[in-house]
Each structure stands twice: as C-alpha cells, then as structure tokens.
Write a structure and sequence with these properties.
- With 531 residues, this protein is an alpha+beta fold.
- Strand 5 and strand 6 form a beta hairpin.
- Helix 2 runs antiparallel to helix 21.
Length: 531
Amino acid sequence: MMITAVKSLADRLVASPRRLWLAAFAIFFALSASWSISTPTGASPDEHAHLVRAAAVARGQIDGREVMVPHVVGGIEGQFAETGVELPRIYQDVKDVNACYVFEPGIPAACAPELKERPGTTLVTTAAGRYHPAYYLAVGWPSRLVHGEKAFYLMRLMSALICSALAASAVVSAAEWRRRSFTLLGTVTATTPMALFMFGVVNPSGPEIAAGILVWSAGLPMLMSPDPHLLNRRLARLGVGALVLISIRPLGLIWFCGALFFGLLLGRKGALRDVLRRRATWLWGVLALATAGWALAWSSSHPDNSVIDASDLTPVLAARKTFDNGLLYIKQMVGYFGWLDAQSPAATLVVWCGVVIALAMLALVYARFRDALAIGGVLIGIVVIPITAQALQSQLGMIWQGRYLLPFAVGLPIMCAAICHERMPWGGFAWRRLLVMFGFSLALVNAAAFLWALRRNTVGTEGPLLISPAHWAPYGGWAVWLVVYTLAALALGLFVAASDNRERPLPDSSGTAGGGSAEGPPRLAGAHAEA
C-alpha cells in the first residue's frame, strides 16, 4: 500500500522535471547537510587547508607567497610548498584543532579545544594554495559575512548546496529513460556514503564526484536512448557537469574524456550525428575547451615545488603497493570517513559492493560485444588508473586515496544500469521486488555508515553503539541528525523502489513514438506484470 502511494507520488514528480529536481535536491541536501553539521570542524581530509584557501580567495587573495613548511607524511619527511595568506587568527587555530583525536579513532572529538574568534590577522599557510580558485570562491564568500566557527559550517553548507544541485540534475537525467527503475538505481548506487560525506565538507572532491555522476547520467541517455525533445536539456546538464569537473583539477579532463569515450562506445547508430547537429553542442564544447584551457594554464603556472625524500619508493614498488591496496581503496570509495580513521560497518561495504556487482553481472548476461567492452574497460580503468598515477608520483610517497577515483568509478553502476535498461527483457521475473530490496538495502546501510561515523566522533570507536552518554555532539544533538539522515536515505531508496518498470513511449529522432531504434529492448507481453 505504501509503495503504491509512493509510486503515485513518484509518477507525479517525474511528470514535471522541475518538481523532480526540487525533490531530489531536498533529499541530497538533507543527506549532505547532515554530514556538514555532524562532522567536527577539521575532521575531514585536509579540510583546514581548504577552509583557509576558500577564505583567502573570498578576500581577493587568489595567490600568495610560497612558504616551505616541514611535514612528515607516512613516515616520510619533506618540505611542503604551501601558500601564505593573511587571515583572521581563527584560521590558524583550525589547523591544529583536531590534533588530539585525528588518526585515533578510539578518542572522541570532545578533546578538541573550542575555536574562538581572536582580534587581528596573521599569516596562515595552506597546501591548497595552488588549486584552481573557482570552487573556493563559490563556497568561501560566507566567511566575509559571518565570523568564527559558524563561517566554517556555512562554507560546508554552500558546498553541500552545489553538490546537491549537481546530483539532483543527475537524478532528473536518470528518470528520463523509457524505464526509469534501473537507471535511477544506477545513479543512487553511484552516490556512495563517501560521496555524500565529501558533499558535506569543504573539499573540491565533493563537487568533482557530483559532477562525475552528472556527466555519466546525462551523457549516456543522450547517446543510448536519444530523444530530440530532451537533447538540449541533456546537453545543458552534460555541459554544466563537464565545466565543474574540468575546472576542479587537471584529472577532471581525463574523467570527462573517459565518460565521453564509453558513452560513444555504447551509443546507438546515428546518435552522435544528431548531437553534433545541434548548435548547443558546439556552444557547450567551446565553453568546455575554454574551461580546460584555463584549468591547464592555471595548473602549469602553479607547480608544486615541494621537496620530499621518498627515494626508497621506486615507481615499480609504488605500483605494487597500490595494487595490493585495492581492497582498501574500494573501502574508501564506499565509506571511510574522518581522516580515513572511521570505517563504515562491514554491512555497508558488502551490500554496496553487492549491488554494484549484481548490476555488472546482469549487464554482462545481456550485454552485446560493445557493452562488454565498455564494462571491461571501466573495470580495467578502476584498477589501472591508481596504479599508474601512484607510480608516476612515487616521489611524493603513497598519496593515493580511493575518493580520487570516484568521479570516474561512479560510471560503473550508472553504465551497467543503462545496459540493463536497454538490453534486458522485462517479463518473467520479479524485477520490482529486486529493486525494492536493492533500494531499501542501500538506504539502511547508508544510515548505518552515518551512525558509525557519529559514534566515532561522539564516543569513539570503543564507545557504546547507542551513543550514551555522548562526549561530543553536533548542533541540535546527534539523534536529530541521525533521524534526518535516515529519513532522507529512505526517501532516496523509495525513488528506486517506487520506480515504474513499464516502457513509456518517447518520440525518436524521426519524430515517431516508441523510442526509435530496432536495437532497443523488446516490449514483452509480461512487461507490466511487476509494475
């Protein structure tokens, strides 16, 4: 009964892209904002450096003077080239606020000193001073309006707003397929708890991951399920995702080209020709090229002059260690919070990986040759890219983290879901039950991952699971944000569980109904049985 009511609501939402976008945006913002509020200041990877960079860019300090700062990372000593900027003294304090509990998961965040605004400014250094300023300008401006620790939380919420908008656009793209059930599942699966965690903190990885999800979600239907009436909308979403992805860091251009390549490999005959005929394609292409040129020029003019003594780590040894760390990187892509000192429960890793594997296996069962090539290519990329990147940067030590690959790896569940949509027959199997199980399983283990991170921050990993008494608590109390996050995760699962499996006729490129290609999935007599 509840599924039927939610299905009716979902149908009404999908009938209006604007309403669907607003609903998806509200859900993603509730999830990412819960991370924003429930994560102690500075308790996410390198956030202090990004907070300093954002506040400096907002004050017009796009560049600063280079300062060599001694660092020890992974037991390797070195002099890191950081950027010095003039900021209020609280930005110096935030660099060490987490020193008592970071990398000590058994110690809750209550030991951290209270951050207070102090008069005057001082020289503060940041390791993010070489990064492209666009993201930092977008999230840093609240620091000009609000002072003290509240500014840090507002900057987080600005990042959550940006990422939620990108992810909501991906949901709209996924809902535009003729059968939206599997495509929505692919997009939801791509948005791992780790992705949501990065959405909610000040770190360019957040919008980079969200933009990667949008690029895959908007690009694949444009080529695999073409519809001239939706083409300009899809081009606009793909263009926005590409501009964000490319401007974040140089690797963004590689992620975008990878998504484009596999989209072309899976595309229907004639789909690319129709796309290239649109004036909007060339407009977005020019903007993307200009953005790429600006990003590459910025990167080349801001080299990393750090001096690190990692001579014992040869490229071959770094590559081998990276290969051996494969399972660790998978954990980090699904959910490894804090400064990589707060793991998700085992159920989160098992269920999330299980859904991805199930999508991949189903896709391979019905795949055509090019489909199998695309799935194999993405899997090879997930394995080879970290090995290659770490080998090329072995002089910096073992610096690779799983989240660095997420903007590309999100393409695996999205692509496999699209192949399932296009190739699978829909009669004779209880697809609705499978989708309900997948949707709610992901929702529950997503909430469990949030609870595990809350527990680490409030009572430590050795503390009680029921978090009583809490030594540290976020604004409003931990229970409030656990409820908000759980409800939002369930709402996202309901999007999948209540999706309609029936084929919805759409005009093809010739203007006739039916979706337009003999290569599309057959309409079976039993296609409505589970709807």
